[in-house]
């Protein structure tokens, strides 16, 4: 029934009964059911669309940004080092990556506590790619009603070419996504040339095919199944929500009792609320829920239902905001509280972790050294009568250029050094250097002496020292 047609004269009891949840929709979340998302325009849809395209563009362009003689972001797994612009993270620095993921987790907790599931609705890759696939679907197969009708039609040339064009577009986006993802691990310029000239490694083809099919399946077929049935975030979000968390909410006091009516009639006199029960909020929802049934874990806070409802309110001449970003306290006319213990706690922890991470990233040592004592003999007396200890020194040059290093010992006097004391190490290389240190026994006051082996280098005009403590054994 359109908004301009004259409503039937239902009693209040009949209207309530009519608009109770339909039993036929009880299996709405069956993975075999298809959800045909209706196109909608509005503020939140435009924000989501712009953020989605920006995220996609950032993802595609980032591997192509140069940084010196390499790409800016390169996870070089074979050499066990991650290049992120001017920072090179080695396996010894993986605590930084762990700290980064912890910051991301606490950032998600903080944002969710305050703004709800905006990550899911606006920036989650599953959501971004799903809406990109839906965009292609709408451009090729038409609006929601046309897509439903097309799927119900028998196979014809029109249906065949539309389905073929749609799935071809999906596969192209999936392949581009897979190639881009792999190019974070394999230099992008080499990757595309090797792949299309059939000179790439077999594992590269495997991962490209794997991620192509994964993207095609997730964004093209599974869509809301990932959000409803597989994503753990939707399950544990309740632990972060409170009554002051912003959610997509339906104003029951204002909207009920819902029902169709003429735009010219005074719906208040008919005992109706502002909701005309057009079901557009359900048709535009990517997970197929009815937000009027209250807060549900399936809601991803994308705001599509807000835009649909606001458009309907504009056509009816009613105020906007029947469905809006709001809080449970606001809906219940309870005073809201922005600063609450949970939010403050997340904020404090997040701030401290970010500061520590920035400090740790800025102070990554450009050189690392490990000293291993010879385990075959604690000491030996050489032909000069000196007490000699043997060590294996491993020096890692973590910079982007070859460096020269000087080695010394502190804690011993009048010692002799056997082996190289000045070495040059290429960028990213590990040098294994066997050395021996010998001392006249009269210089030794005890059988175990704590000593330090020091590596000194001048890097970018700055004097860098790295020290490793070890022991010198004697009779």
From TrEMBL:
Keywords: 4Fe-4S, Electron transport, Iron, Iron-sulfur, Membrane, Metal-binding, Transmembrane, Transmembrane helix, Transport. InterPro entries: 4Fe4S_Fe-S-bd, 4Fe4S_Fe_S_CS, Cyt_c_oxidase_cbb3_FixG, Electron_Trans/Redox, FixG_C, Ig-like_fold. One of its GO terms (cellular component) is plasma membrane. GO terms for molecular function: 4 iron, 4 sulfur cluster binding; metal ion binding. It holds the Pfam family Fer4_5. It comes from the Bacteria. Residues 266-294 form the 4Fe-4S ferredoxin-type domain. The chain crosses the membrane at residues 50-68, 89-110, 169-187, 202-221, 343-362. NCBIfam families: ccoG_rdxA_fixG (TIGR02745). This is 4Fe-4S ferredoxin, iron-sulfur binding. The lineage of its organism: Bacteria, Pseudomonadati, Pseudomonadota, Gammaproteobacteria, Alteromonadales.
């Amino acid at each position: 029934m359109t908004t301009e047609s004259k409503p039937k004269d239902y009693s209040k009891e009949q209207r309530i009964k009519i608009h109770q949840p339909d039993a036929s929709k009880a299996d709405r979340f069956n993975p075999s059911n298809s959800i045909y998302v209706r196109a909608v325009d509005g503020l939140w849809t435009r924000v989501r669309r712009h953020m989605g395209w920006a995220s996609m563009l950032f993802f595609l362009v980032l591997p192509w940004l140069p940084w010196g003689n390499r790409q800016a972001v390169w996870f070089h797994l074979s050499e066990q080092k991650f290049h992120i612009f001017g920072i090179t993270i080695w396996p010894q620095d993986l605590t930084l990556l762990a700290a980064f993921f912890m910051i991301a987790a606490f950032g998600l907790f903080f944002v969710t506590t305050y703004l709800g599931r905006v990550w899911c609705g606006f920036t989650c890759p599953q959501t971004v790619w799903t809406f990109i696939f839906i965009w292609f679907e709408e451009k090729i197969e038409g609006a929601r009603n046309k897509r439903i009708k097309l799927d119900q039609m028998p196979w014809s040339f029109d249906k065949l070419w539309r389905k073929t064009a749609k799935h071809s577009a999906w596969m192209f986006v999936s392949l581009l996504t897979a190639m881009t993802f792999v190019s974070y691990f394999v230099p992008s310029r080499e990757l595309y040339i090797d792949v299309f000239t059939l000179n790439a490694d077999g594992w590269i083809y495997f991962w490209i095919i794997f991620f192509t099919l994964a993207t095609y399946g997730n964004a093209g077929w599974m869509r809301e199944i990932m959000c409803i049935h597989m994503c753990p975030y939707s399950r544990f979000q309740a632990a972060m929500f409170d009554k002051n968390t912003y959610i997509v909410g339906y104003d029951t006091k204002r909207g009920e009792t819902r029902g169709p009516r003429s735009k010219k009639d005074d719906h208040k006199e008919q005992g109706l609320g502002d909701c005309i029960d057009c079901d557009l909020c359900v048709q535009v929802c990517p997970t197929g829920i009815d937000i009027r049934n209250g807060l549900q874990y399936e809601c991803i806070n994308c705001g599509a239902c807000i835009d649909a409802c606001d458009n309907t309110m504009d056509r009816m001449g009613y105020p906007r905001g029947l469905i809006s970003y709001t809080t449970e306290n606001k809906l219940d006319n309870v005073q809201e509280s922005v600063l609450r213990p949970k939010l403050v706690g997340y904020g404090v922890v997040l701030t401290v972790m970010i500061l520590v991470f920035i400090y740790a990233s800025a102070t990554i040592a450009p050189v690392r050294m490990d000293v291993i004592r010879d385990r075959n003999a604690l000491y030996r007396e050489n032909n000069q009568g000196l007490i000699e200890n043997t060590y294996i020194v491993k020096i890692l040059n973590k910079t982007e250029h070859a460096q020269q290093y000087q080695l010394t010992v502190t804690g011993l006097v009048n010692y002799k050094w056997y082996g190289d004391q000045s070495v040059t190490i290429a960028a990213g290389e590990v040098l294994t250097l066997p050395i021996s240190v010998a001392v006249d026994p009269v210089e030794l006051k005890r059988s175990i002496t704590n000593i330090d082996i020091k590596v000194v280098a001048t890097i970018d005009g700055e004097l860098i020292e790295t020290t490793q403590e070890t022991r010198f054994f004697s009779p």
